[in-house]
Amino acid sequence: MGPGSARGRIGELRQIVTAALARSDAAAQTLPRARALLAAAMLAGMQGDPLAVPLTEQSVPLLRALGLKVELAYVLMMLVRFALPDLDAARRAMSESRALFEESGARWGVGQLLTIMADTELRHGENDAARSRYTESLALLRQLGELTLSTGPLLGLGQLACIDGDYARARAIVEEALAIRRQPDFGYPWTIANALVSLGEIDRCEGDPARGVPSFEQALATGRELADDVLVGWSVHNLGHVALHAGDLSTAAARFRESLLLRWRSGPGAEVAAGLAGVAGVALRQGQLTEALRLFGAVDRMLESTHNVLRPADERVRREDLAAIRLRLDDRAFDAAFGEGQAAKFEELDGMANAVVLRAVGR
After folding, report:
1. What pTM does this model have?
2. Contact 273, 237 (CB under 8 A)
3. SS3 sequence, 287-333?
4. What is the pLDDT confidence band of residue 135, given thresholds at 50, 70 and 90?
5. 2-13 burial by CB neighbour count: b if 16+ within 10 A, else e?
């Protein structure tokens, strides 16, 4: 994300770009329309809107026709980021994008592309591949003096350190990225808030979610100020886990529900799965083992079908919760309820989660 979009309200910028596209000739093969499509795709992706996919795909043939290599490289990079659940397809798009960046001498683009491909691989659980690309990206961006861009691979390496259980290293890496993003010449509210969420999730990984409250609350305040649903969603979700860990099930349920309301429109994926897993944790702690397992089954199917994994802090809680249920139910009852959740349709999941939430908040 560029600094301009980080400073302002993404929703407002998107409205301006969308209005400009609506006034333009859809058949026109012009540079302004190509760039407007790219901007609209980027802003939609930042908001978790699936419209990022068709917007990005519309711009590809237009940029090819115009012979705009750097812009085409950037659009292909956006496909890697927003539109491709298929890792092989993402890697093909990355290969073409990298060749175009290198041909154009835009080495900064190669560094950013490596980070985005690593992010995609990390979401798919391809940790070794992600680590290799983050490391290459960080070295290149540091060589180029691109301090702001270098924070992207730093945050990714911090998440991998969390997965490895090396929390001291994870904290050091994320704090380095946060310090760079807080510098007056580089600091933009969205990027700072994003790093704060990562820092707070390290506290969750270490088993001390309450320590992350200031980070999550600051990120939430920024998200609300910028009207950024993705940032608000992640911040509220993490605060839900803080409440869950403390045994405040009413607050946890309300937080998870608030987060899910912002995430449903993005469709099946890691974000919705994380919210459902949180609600399942509420059900478990209320003794609703069958309801919890149905939600966990839905989470399992969603992650499998979208080739995603949960972020480390969420995966730790899910793993522990499932182990706790295993101790309390026989295999037949466990498998039956889990299977029901796996078979549930996406449009049924909102009702399943809401039933747990309503009981938890006493309505």
Report:
1. 0.86
2. no
3. CCHHHHHHHHHHHHHHHHHHCCCCCHHHHHHHHHHHHHHHCCCCHHH
4. very high
5. eeebbeeebeeb
